[in-house]
Amino acid sequence: MKKPALFSSEKFIFALKCLAVAAIMCIINFFFKGDVESLTRATLSEMYTDGPIDVLFIGASHTYRSYDPAAIEAATGLNVYNAGSALQQMQGSYYLLQEAAENSDIDTVVLDITYTMQLLEGTGERQTVILTDYMKNPLRRVIYAGSVLGPEGITGTIWPCLHNGVFNQENLRHHLTGDYKKDYASIVFAEEGYHGQGYVPDYLTVPEDFTFTRATEINPAHPISDFTMKYLKKVIAYCKKHGLRLILADPPMPDGTLVTAGHFQEYIDAVGGIAEENDLEYWEFNLAKDGLLDLDRGDFYDETHLNIYGAEKFSALVSDILASGNTDIFYDSYAEKLEKNPDGTLE
Amino acid sequence: MELATFGYLLFLAVSLFLYFCLPARFQWIVILADNLIFYCLNAEPVTLLYLGGSVLTVYFATLFFQKSTNPSRKKIVLLLALLLCAGLLFVLKYSNLFINTVRYFTGETTSLQPVSWLLPLAISFYSLTLISYLLDCYWGIAAFQSNPLKLFAFISFFPLMVSGPIQRYAKVGEEFFREHSFDYARVTEGMKRIAWGMVKKLAVSNRLSPLVSSIWNDPGSYHGLMIWAGILLYLLQLYTDFSGCMDIALGTAQCFGLALEENFEAPFLSKTTQEFWQRWHITLGKWLRDYIMNPILKSAGMQKLMTRCVGRFGKKKGKKIPLLLSMLVLWLCMGLWHGDSWKYILGEGFWFWLVIALGQIFGPAFQKWKTALHIKDNLAFRAFQVVRTNLIFAFGMIFFKAASLPDAFSRIGAMFRLTGNAAVSPAVKAWTDQMGISGLAVFFPALLLLVIADVLIYRKQNPFEVLKKLHPVLRWCLYAILIYFIMSSYVIEGEGFAYARF
The pTM is what? Predict the structure, then answer.
């Protein structure tokens, strides 16, 4: 019997060999991808496998260090998940939100609007690949990584070891012995802990002589980058289309940092304008009133992040708002907050 | 988008898919589109204006050669076109050489300040390709390309827009625009060559880079011999970097059905400096020979000089003087091509001319001594010649690597210092610690494969043909190992291709 033309063609043999090469690469990738200790591997896996999510907190490290889902769940009875990831920018939030929303019937999205992450024109490689490596939807992975890193991002989604590979015996042992699947113990640094549901509090407190200085300077004429605006609009549109309640939220930062960054009021006004324009809630916790959120130096572990003590106070306040719906807890301006509820970090 | 990346391979895969799936008449358009995308991904798109302007200038000049029958007008147009192409290259690349020289001699009292132009991609490479096409058309060697877009597609062929090699339209132009159907053997060999280039760059050059840097950055503390060792390691790094880039470029061209001219042929096995340069950056050497040295040698002035010299010194010696003078121009151009600094002119140009000229002048005398001392052409003498040639080359490359001319001289001084740390062991230990066993298990086998491949090339054998003769299982095991070498070296932060800034 004559063979079909396809099977005898050189192109078919060539395609087979290309697939063989790709398969060899997949095997190498399987054994040497260096994400045994990846935090997002753990948190995204948990996000996909744990039960339903009513409230999703999404954003950068300010999110995963500030919102304690267990405390909020206990206080409100809602199912909460903290989908924060290191250096997450608005583009990452946009794609991660879609992943979460496809996986669970989310009601409320609390989007991190911390100023430090909203000034950049573009997304970096690291914050992209730590998400795309573990996103479920392959097309979304390709689109997100490809838009940030070009063709290199696309190949990186197929073989993550091209950017995170660790080619040593120890990593090989992890993958061969099955430790890879069960060993989440060391996914965080020594001074922090993984409390589940994406929450990673830090146990340290800033030293006595620590001086709070600006992390990034705010440009009063352009407090939010065009890049952030582009993806913020997409997030807003996505939430509207899918009937999700979107809240723009800014976890508290030390006054020392915000004052030296300068023009924080302009930043608040810019975000407030976006919220008003799109009929969104805006929770600016840096305006929280005296008696509702009383932070001091001992509640921060560096110039921008809360530590576990600060996060506990903050999560209690977030729980109250979510449970009561009362958002009349903010001063009208940052100057007023500085005057009436300073946190003692301003020297 | 660097050539030695998987992103580039993906780009290439999509390009090849379109190239072979679309009707053959669109193949050159696929390449043109690829070229534009590649250019814009690697350089400021606005600098395409330089490239486009040069191509259009040459196109209209060659069109004029076709139409005009007036030789003097043709000559004027040729000179104008040459002036524009070479002038653009000189202004963009050598302004600072001129400015810095003036500042040096005027004690920096001049108002002239160094400039930082927005450079087009691979200007030193595409300018020479364009000039060769222009001159070949003028001399009637190359066929006129009537479609300026096709000429643009040829000149800006994307794999060559990093570090060449410099191609000539007269040799490959016709082949470039011929219809190419999918050829299994050719495409697979092209792919293998790309993979081999990636092994050279990633598994050898990039892995060697920290060791070279640690010795190079601390010349004050090492014994002269260790500085020599450092520069020899640098040669290995540079060779695997540059020839790796060439393998990727030529492998890519091969996938598109093009057999372009080679740029390296196992140079480190050369017995003389002259032979070395016939095996190192071959296309540049040939270009300078054909478009600089030979025209000068054939010029009326040089012919007159030759007649005079023959009359005065005899036929043999008299012919050598114009030859050596033409060679001097060639080598100074060679140095100048490498960059906007006198260190290149001296180290990459004059030094090698001096060695070759002395070799030519004293060659017969050396031969006599060799006979008188009963030195035979055995393996030991051969090894001596190879080592001598490589040391001479290494000496010249100090100027290439040094930050400036004074820096090069201070390093040369250090090379002959008999004090200092006579062991590179701290640097080597730091390097091996950094690499780990798994890294060394990649570096040394890759190096061994490189030596085997170069010995085969020196013996005029194609390593890929030898590979084909292996048992398929063994061959695929080797492929898997090479893929492992590439992937495991991919995460190491390396430098960009050394010649990509040219």
Answer: 0.88
